[in-house]
């Protein structure tokens, strides 16, 4: 072989090596794993734990909620629910330093629940119920921090001998004791439905479906019972409902009562369906805030004495304070005919939601604001409209009957990929179109307050 041919062969081999390195590691020469940074990862199912996986994916699609967790997370408090939840969400979103794009094991969240004394009974596994468990556990930690200033480990009572768990666990390390799991939790599709247990007693009806109870989820070894020295920071899901009674005889109005909530359960019982038999989210919200007649209430003006005449009252409910992260639960499981049944009607929901029609009316503008007209008064009204504008972040769906099935989540991407949507079902993650998301049978809807567009003033 001549020297010229040898040079051409060597050049060809060198070019092949360069092209192969570019394909494998990219233009910067970094390992391919770095391309996965920011990519959404799936979550391993530890045995009918998709109710946990689907909730983690939904929360991971809420930037405001993640920022709140980051503010109160501490690196030295491994069995803190706030720290554990923040770390797992970071790994799921691919923003953690240890993120590799592989399925994540959520064992740390279960261990943090046990460390806080929470027990999940065998007949109580549901993504909506678990949301209230996590938020209650978080509220206990923030209450402890407000009562005892200092580091989070001191506030949680974690001494040097306290047991610390990592937020991330190896798939080969199962929980120390098997969890009691209910059949309705959501088993993977390939698992058979279990036999129905004895029918539970008819659940108590909550007023307008407001989710304020912990849904019979037991707790042991409750801690931090003392009242905080200063108000604890409320999670971004916390809002208030404003309710008022008005007598139909003398038109006397009672003082406004404010009730806290972390999610709102919307029923289809009092809502009206369209011609196709489908419902809409605005229709469910209108039914939730519609005035209703209440009987058996004593009016302080009509009968000031105790035991006097009881009159009919009109009860009105509105959103007194809208949360930054709005969670709406479509109550599909109902008690009818001596048993549980699930409603499968379609509920249409928008990508952008305006909550202003369902919020409490603002106080009348002052005379100065009224005189200014399009000045300060208009600016204040625009600010209120911005706080009532929400953007869809995630949708939780449930496939199956009232006692068994599977949970999955449609969620937004994170960061610069926030306009892309993904379907997540345990370890399965793939991109979908927004039209597919809006056509799904929603069980839980997560909205976040839309960030206002920057305004420019002209003089």
The strand count comes to: 16
SSE topology string: HHHHHHHEEEEHEEEEEEEHHEEEEHE
Structural class: alpha+beta
The helix tally amounts to: 11
Residue ranges: pLDDT <50 for 5 or more in a row?
18-35, 152-228, 363-383
Largest sheet: 8 strands, mixed
- pLDDT averaged over residues: 73
* Whole-angstrom Rg: 27 Å
Percent of sequence in beta strands = 15-25%
Share of helix, binned: 25-40%
Shape annotation = globular
Question: What separation lies between the terminal Cα atoms?
Answer: 81 Å
Characterization of this structure:
The chain is about 25% helix and about 20% strand. By secondary structure, the chain is an alpha+beta fold. Strands 3, 7, 11, 12, 13, 14, 15 and 16 form an 8-stranded mixed sheet that branches. A hairpin with a 4-residue loop joins strand 12 (about 390-400) and strand 13. Helix 2 (about 50-60) packs across helix 4 and helix 4 runs antiparallel to helix 5 (about 105-115). The longest helix is centred in the N-terminal third of the chain and has 23 residues, at about 5-25. The chain is globular, with a radius of gyration of 27 Å. The N and C termini lie far apart (about 80 Å).
């Amino acid at each position: 072989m001549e020297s010229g041919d040898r040079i051409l062969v060597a050049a060809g081999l060198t070019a092949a090596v360069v092209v192969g390195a570019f394909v494998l590691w990219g233009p910067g020469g970094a390992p391919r794993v770095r391309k996965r940074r920011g990519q959404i990862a799936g979550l391993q199912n530890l045995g009918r734990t998709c109710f946990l996986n689907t909730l983690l994916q939904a929360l991971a699609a809420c930037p405001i909620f993640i920022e709140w967790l980051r503010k109160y997370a501490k690196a030295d408090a491994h069995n803190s629910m706030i720290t554990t939840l923040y770390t797992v969400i970071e790994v799921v979103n691919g923003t953690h330093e240890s993120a590799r794009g592989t399925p994540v094991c959520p064992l740390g969240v279960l261990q943090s629940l046990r460390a806080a004394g929470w027990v999940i009974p065998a007949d109580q596994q549901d993504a909506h119920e678990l949301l209230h468990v996590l938020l209650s556990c978080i509220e206990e930690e923030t209450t402890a921090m407000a009562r005892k200033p200092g580091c989070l480990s001191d506030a949680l009572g974690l001494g040097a001998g306290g047991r610390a768990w990592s937020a991330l666990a190896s798939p080969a390390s199962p929980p120390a004791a098997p969890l009691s799991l209910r059949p309705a939790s959501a088993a993977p599709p390939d698992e058979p439905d279990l036999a129905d247990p004895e029918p539970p007693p008819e659940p108590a009806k909550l007023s307008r479906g407001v989710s304020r109870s912990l849904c019979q989820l037991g707790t042991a070894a409750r801690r931090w019972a003392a009242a905080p020295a200063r108000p604890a920071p409320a999670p971004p899901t916390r809002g208030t409902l404003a309710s008022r009674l008005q007598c139909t005889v003398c038109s006397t109005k009672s003082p406004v009562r404010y009730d806290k909530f972390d999610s709102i359960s919307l029923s289809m019982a009092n809502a009206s369906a369209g011609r196709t038999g489908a419902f809409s989210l605005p229709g469910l919200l209108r039914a939730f805030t519609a005035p209703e007649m209440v009987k058996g209430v004593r009016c302080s003006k009509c009968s000031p004495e105790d035991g006097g005449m009881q009159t009919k009252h009109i009860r009105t409910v509105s959103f007194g304070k809208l949360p930054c992260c709005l969670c709406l639960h479509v109550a599909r499981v109902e008690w009818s005919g001596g048993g549980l049944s699930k409603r499968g009607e379609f509920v249409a929901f928008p990508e952008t939601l305006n909550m202003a029609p369902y919020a409490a009316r603002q106080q009348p503008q002052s005379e100065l604001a009224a005189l200014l007209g399009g000045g300060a008064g208009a600016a204040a009204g625009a600010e209120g409209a911005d706080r009532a504008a929400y953007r869809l972040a995630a949708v939780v769906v449930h496939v199956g009957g009232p006692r068994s099935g599977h949970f999955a989540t449609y969620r937004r991407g994170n960061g610069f990929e926030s306009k892309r949507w993904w379907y997540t079902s345990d370890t399965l993650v793939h991109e979908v179109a927004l039209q597919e998301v809006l056509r799904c049978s929603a069980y839980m809807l997560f909205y976040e307050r839309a960030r206002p567009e920057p305004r420019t003033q002209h003089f």
